[in-house]
Each structure stands twice: as C-alpha cells, then as structure tokens.
Amino acid sequence: MGWVNDLLHTFFDFSAMAEVLPQMLSVGLVNTLIISVAATGIGLVVGMIVAIMGISATAWLRIPARIYTDLFRGLPAILTILVIGQGFARFSQSVFGPSPYPLGILALSLIAGAYLGEIFRSGIQSVEAGQLEACRALGMNYAKAMRLVVVPQGVRRVLPALVNQFIGIVKDSSLVYFLGLLSGERELFRVGQDAAVLSGNLSPMVLAGVFYLVITVPLTHLVNHFDRRFRVGRRKAAPVSGLRELDELDAPPLVTGSKA
C-alpha cells in the first residue's frame, strides 16, 4: 500500500539515519551527556544546600529556600532557559565567549536544584527523629550528626527519585537548543532537527528519539530495581516477627499451678 511506504520513508529511511549517525554519536550524544551530567552535578550541590536551608528552624534560611523552590518548580523549563540564556547573555559573553552553552547548563542546574532540594528534604525528614537524638547522646553536634548519619540515610532512601530526576534532565536538555548553540555544541535533538530540515525527512528525528530511549529506558529499569530492593530491605524484618508470633501460638501453655 502506498501510504505504508510513505510512512516508512518518512520515519524509517535508514539511509538518512546512516548519514546523520556519525554526527549523532560524535556531537549530539556527547553534548547531551555533558549538559545532563553537568546540570545534575551542580543541581545536586544546589539541591542539598536548599534542602538543609529548607529544614532549618531559622526563618531567614527557610524562607529563601522555599521561594527558590516554588519559583523554579513553578515556571516552565523553557521559560527559565530563555530568561537566563537571554538575560545573562552579555555577562556570559564576557566570561565564556559567544557560546550560550554554559547558560543552558546553568538554567538546567537551577531547575534541577529546586526539584532535587525537595527530594533531599523529604528523604532527610523521613529519617526517624531517634537517629538524631542518638547521635546527640553520643556527643555529636548537630552538623556532624546530619553529615555522618541523617543525610546519608536520607539520600539512600530517595536514590530512585534522584535517578528519575536525572532522566528528566536528559530529556529537558533538548530545550537548550532554543538558545542557538554553535555547530559543535548541538545536542541530540538539534542534530536530528537540522538533518531533518536538510533532508526533508523525519528519520533523523526518529534516530534522535532512539538515542534518548537508549539513555532513559535502562535508567528507568535501574530505578525500579533500586525501588524493589529498598522496599524488600525495609520489610525484611517482618517475616522474622511473624515466625516468632507463630512459635508463640504453637507453644504449649505454661503451667502456673496444679489443681488441688
């Protein structure tokens, strides 16, 4: 059928895919990973600072953290990227040159920091209060107890959410193309879009989508693995208590006295 051939030619033209594949690997994939990893790394630092400020009892620390979180979580990612990319363009040119690449990473980092801050905050607050009290009883100050005991436990509990956030950053990295990246700085989406415009065929865009799936799908399954493992770890004490209850039920009653 003619329409089937048209669809195959439009979306699965393997010659068009093969032509753009070297650029996808050497330029698009490399830049996507650089943007995502750099934004995640900066976002982790910002998020941890925001989380600690957010759980502080001091209002002048807690309120700015809340404002920052609400601002960058409430705005669309594309709006944040454009405002930062265009608003700080002159400053960036004097430091980094004409490339908007660093501003794209900065915008994604600020967005990631807001989400990661909430993830860290929920993880830290999920740790039982008795953990902190035990640390204080052992002579640790608040900062040392948080750094050595509470924060590591909180981060472990939210590890699946952290991986999910990285997946979101990988996908949002495609929005950086709105800033007008240089030829050697294009990410997967921009490489696929440019090739699709030149060839009049959407197959390069489909290939870009395949690369995104190659990155995100294994990470999604990794998240599920961590989630199952942590849930099993939290419940592993339950069967032991259940067996003890059964043993108590099966045990003969204790004889406390004899009938006269």
TrEMBL record:
It comes from Amycolatopsis echigonensis. InterPro entries: AA_ABC_transptr_permease_3TM, ArtM/GltK/GlnP/TcyL/YhdX-like, MetI-like, MetI-like_sf. It is found in: Cell membrane. Pfam families: BPD_transp_1 (PF00528). Keywords: Amino-acid transport, Cell membrane, Membrane, Transmembrane, Transmembrane helix, Transport. This is Amino acid ABC transporter membrane protein (PAAT family). Residues 29-223 form the ABC transmembrane type-1 domain. The lineage of its organism: Bacteria, Bacillati, Actinomycetota, Actinomycetes, Pseudonocardiales. Its main location: membrane. It is a multi-pass membrane protein. GO terms for cellular component: ATP-binding cassette (ABC) transporter complex. Belongs to the binding-protein-dependent transport system permease family. HisMQ subfamily. The chain crosses the membrane at residues 33-59, 71-89, 101-120, 202-226. The keyword 4Fe-4S does not apply. GO terms for biological process: amino acid transport. It comes from the Bacteria. One of its GO terms (molecular function) is transmembrane transporter activity. NCBIfam families: HEQRo_perm_3TM.
